């Protein structure tokens, strides 16, 4: 990567640096290649490390770079599609579902989720943890909150903890007639546990997709999926909103 001194430009200095770095990524680096460290990059471009970090963070948000534990900053692979639109309009765990059940515990959901479920604050619900992979790489982690009233038959079933119990909860949930879904998407920061599952650093930018599942005239379950914002973007088409994620 050649040395480029930045001149006075109308846009912020980090934004101009981002453009220069993006051009270098296209011409000088391969997918998966590790970038030089921040000190070296800042010296080559004649900028403060704070300015460099802003440019790198922006490129990470745009999906050009990935910051990986114990590796450093690498060039991100191209994006591939991961559907989250109406084509996926089915109960979690259905035959067309691309999520993998990991664990299930009884925990109190966050206050915002409890309000969506209509449960009392602090009341424990079945919390199913799932992971989604594309081309073998984790692209999203999900917590599915299911109140006991949605799976009354579960009390009579002796399911082992972990993935086996998670699958049992999903099967019982599918006994209800799904009446519809709604989704909300917002930008957030990765919690420590989600970051570990997604091979990200805690606090890394993520897209939070909250889905409510309706049955019997009310909310039967709520899922909060954490997608890697460094490799995911929203698209709009005839089928509604989709997320695109890198494989």
UniProtKB/TrEMBL annotation:
The keyword Transcription regulation applies. CDD domains: WHTH_GntR. One of its GO terms (molecular function) is DNA binding. It holds the Pfam family UTRA. InterPro entries: Bact_HTH_transcr_reg (IPR050679), Chorismate_lyase_/UTRA_dom_sf (IPR028978), Tscrpt_reg_HTH_GntR (IPR000524), UTRA (IPR011663), WH-like_DNA-bd_sf (IPR036388), WH_DNA-bd_sf (IPR036390). Keywords: DNA-binding, Transcription, Transcription regulation. Residues 11-78 form the HTH gntR-type domain. The keyword Transcription regulation applies. One of its GO terms (biological process) is negative regulation of DNA-templated transcription. This is GntR family transcriptional regulator. The lineage of its organism: Bacteria, Bacillati, Actinomycetota, Actinomycetes, Kitasatosporales.
